[in-house]
Amino acid sequence: MPNALHTYRSRQRDYVSEFTQFMQRYQDEHPEAMESQRKGWYIFWDKKVDLPDLKKAEQDSVPTPPYYYP
Fold it and tell me: CA–CA separation, 51 vs 59, rounded Å?
């Protein structure tokens, strides 16, 4: 007699949600979407940081009061 937990886990391993299936199908049909995503990532996140300017901006900023909303 098979162990119920073992049977449950083996079924769980084979499960792929509808959303995951959709995304995999979309990526297969639209490979340009991944390149577009990479370009967008580089535009917003991969920027060179000028540390002296960052430090100056931190020193020049005005602290936010503890209770911001009146």
Answer: 12
pTM beyond cutoff 0.70: no
For residues 38 and 44, is the Cβ–Cβ distance under 8 A? no
Q: How far is CA 60 from the centre of its chain?
A: 32
What would the pLDDT profile of 51-65 be if each residue is shown by its tens digit?
Answer: 999 899 888 888 877
Q: Work out the angle between the directed axes of helices 18-29 and 32-44 (0-180°, nearest 10).
A: 100
Q: Cα separation of 38 and 34, whole Å?
A: 6
In tens, the pLDDT along 26-38 reads 999 999 998 988 8
Q: Are 33 and 27 in contact (CB under 8 A)?
A: yes
For the chain, how far is it from start to end, CA to CA, in angstroms?
Answer: 67
